[in-house]
Amino acid sequence: MSDQAKGHLFAFITILIWGTTFISTKVLLVYFTPIEILFIRFLIGICTLWLVCPQKLKLVDSRQEYTFAAAGLCGITLYYLLENIALTYTQAANVGVIISIAPFFTVIFSCLFLHDQRPGLRFFLGFLIAMAGIALISFSNAALELNPMGDLLAVAAACIWAAYSTLTKKISSFGYNTIQTTRRTFFYGLIFMLPIIFFTGFQMDLKSLIDPQNLFNLLFLGLGASALCFVTWNSAVKTLGPIRTSVYIYMVPVITTAAAALILHEKITWQMLAGILLTLLGLFLSEKHKKEN
């Protein structure tokens, strides 16, 4: 297999896992609270990263610690907590599609805080089309008494992820090993979860924990989505480049929706399908704008 073929395979594996994480979380929410799932997932992830790269990260500037702490708070604690809570209100397919608008907010935050190039008309056109798609998805199941709270939480999660992406771009400029920086971010994410656990309680049922279905989904989230995907995605970026690899992100809502229908038997309406197409079209227009510049 050529290096190019391996790069495409790694990118597809990563997106396949990320696109189905919503399904695993949805299944686990029957037995665990959102914060319990979150804590266990990233505890598994950080332990895995320690085994892969046990070397300690030594910062050349102590002020960089604040950036890692902010990244852990946004990208690990707040983003995934909002995502998990959103899944308790709305369908996994909804969350998967709505989260995919994060690149729009990432561009906006990059312009505001990193002084990147201001997006043009194509970007805003793509954003409006994607938001129209989200509106279709959100109200497609009104007859099924869909609670819009979950969709709003998913949008908030997308904003938080954009903030995290801006912080990780800053972290990448430090020049450290990416596994070590990810592990550092995981560490702060777990630290910020502790107050939430203290106030909400952490009553882990051992019987539920060792249940084969639950254990598989927890390991899938911890080993696969939180550790393995980091390696496969960065391997794909190294081979294909960030632009060609990012195209695979468009497949996330498609995979999530298909998996939700097959595994969770969630109803997929024509209105929802139209919303998915509009969202993907909006993302395509926005990314094409970035490529042309």
Automatic annotation (TrEMBL):
GO cellular component: plasma membrane
Main subcellular location: membrane
Keywords: Cell membrane, Membrane, Transmembrane, Transmembrane helix
Localization terms from the record: Cell membrane
Every EamA domain range: 6-138, 149-285
InterPro entries listed in its UniProt record: AA-Vitamin_Transporters (IPR050638), EamA_dom (IPR000620), EmrE-like (IPR037185)
Transmembrane segments: 9-31, 37-53, 65-82, 94-114, 121-140, 146-164, 185-203, 215-235, 247-264, 270-286
Domain of life according to the entry: Bacteria
Pfam families the record matches: EamA
Bilayer topology term: Multi-pass membrane protein
PANTHER family: INNER MEMBRANE TRANSPORTER, S-ADENOSYLMETHIONINE_S-ADENOSYLHOMOCYSTEINE TRANSPORTER
Record family assignment: Belongs to the EamA transporter family.
Protein name listed in UniProt: Drug/metabolite transporter (DMT)-like permease
Native species: Dielma fastidiosa
